[in-house]
């Protein structure tokens, strides 16, 4: 059972009331169908009202939900014949990034994504989804392999950021991320990335230089966490809610600014409410994106990607009168 978030309390209380009436109708043998129907109609209205008008901080909370589907969850629901590949061929295998070969609608593809754990033990093993440089080098190895065999690449982004520890810096964290950005820009095969949870800093961008960038409705994509921004701007991490509003980190804000291509709607209450249904919604967007890109030539794919990122940040400068 998914743990309710604070802003969902009115919905939870109404659901409990409906269940109470159902139990009462059973035990007392009383017809309460009309009252139950009235409350169910009210519940649907309340869900639409709350879930369609969430504040940025509410979306941050949903994006961080511990039961939110991970990369492996989507792989299991969307792809078939997945074979996970390991290691960067330099140092080690980083379990904060998973990747391999799979079949999508009968077509071979390469799938790569950040992987959080479910539970304390797995989170520690996967370093809470924060990759070391070997994770990014593994991702790049799989991308170059995909390019060699002409397979489309699908990336799932879900990380607070790259691991900032001493060992990661000693092994070239910034260089590994920078090389991914450089190499991804020139890949000759179709590339799609989907932000499925948190997309934080360069750790997220290292899987995000793609032809198409999609975001789940309640995911976030930003240069820093709201808490980090609040600590820098106002020396107070407790002002994270205000920072989230000011930073424009939601899918809705980023679509408006032209940074992402599509917003993928989530099931009511967030993707964690029904991962299987959410995966099918996401699958349709992937299918559309791959169909658009696979008809392009290698030169057009690279040019399409170039134009996409070249246009981000465009502005019109008016001359002073």
Automatic annotation (TrEMBL):
GO molecular function annotations of the record: acetyl-CoA carboxylase activity; ATP binding; carboxyl- or carbamoyltransferase activity
EC number(s) given by UniProt: 2.1.3.15
Pathway info: Lipid metabolism; malonyl-CoA biosynthesis; malonyl-CoA from acetyl-CoA: step 1/1
Coiled-coil annotated spans: 11-49
A Gene Ontology term for the protein's cellular component: acetyl-CoA carboxylase complex
Major localization listed first in the record, in broad terms: cytoplasm
Assembly behavior: Acetyl-CoA carboxylase is a heterohexamer composed of biotin carboxyl carrier protein (AccB), biotin carboxylase (AccC) and two subunits each of ACCase subunit alpha (AccA) and ACCase subunit beta (AccD).
HAMAP family (alphabetical): AcetylCoA_CT_alpha
Protein name: Acetyl-coenzyme A carboxylase carboxyl transferase subunit alpha
The organism of origin for this protein: Ureibacillus thermophilus
């Amino acid at each position: 059972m998914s743990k309710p978030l604070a802003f969902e309390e009115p919905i939870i209380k109404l659901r409990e009331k409906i269940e109470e009436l159902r139990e009462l109708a059973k035990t007392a043998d009383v017809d309460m169908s009309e009252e139950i129907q009235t409350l169910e109609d009210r519940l649907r209205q309340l869900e639409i009202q709350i879930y369609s008008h969430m504040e940025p901080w509410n979306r941050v909370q949903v994006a961080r939900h511990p039961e939110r589907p991970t990369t492996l969850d989507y792989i299991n629901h969307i792809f078939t014949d997945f074979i996970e590949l390991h290691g960067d061929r330099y140092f080690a295998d980083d379990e904060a990034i998973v990747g391999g070969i799979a079949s999508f609608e009968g077509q071979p593809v390469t799938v790569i994504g950040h992987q959080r754990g479910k539970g304390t033990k797995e989170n520690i093993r996967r370093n809470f989804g924060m990759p070391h440089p070997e994770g990014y080098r593994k991702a790049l190895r799989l991308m170059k392999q995909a390019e060699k065999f002409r397979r489309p690449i699908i990336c799932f982004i879900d990380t607070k950021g790259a691991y900032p520890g001493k060992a990661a810096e000693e092994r070239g964290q910034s260089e590994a991320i920078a090389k991914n950005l450089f190499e991804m820009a020139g890949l000759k095969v179709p590339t799609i990335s989907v932000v499925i949870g948190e997309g934080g800093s360069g750790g997220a961008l290292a899987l995000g230089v793609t032809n198409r960038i999609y975001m789940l409705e309640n995911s976030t994509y930003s240069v820093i966490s709201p808490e980090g921004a609040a600590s820098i701007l106002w020396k107070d991490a407790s002002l994270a809610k205000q920072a989230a509003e000011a930073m424009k980190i939601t899918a809705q804000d980023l679509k408006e600014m032209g940074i992402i291509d599509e917003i993928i709607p989530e099931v009511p209450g967030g993707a964690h409410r029904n991962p299987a249904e959410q995966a099918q919604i996401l699958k349709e967007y992937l299918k559309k994106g791959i169909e658009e890109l696979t008809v392009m030539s290698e030169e057009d794919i690279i040019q399409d990607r170039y134009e996409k990122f070249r246009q981000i940040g465009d502005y019109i400068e008016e001359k002073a009168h």
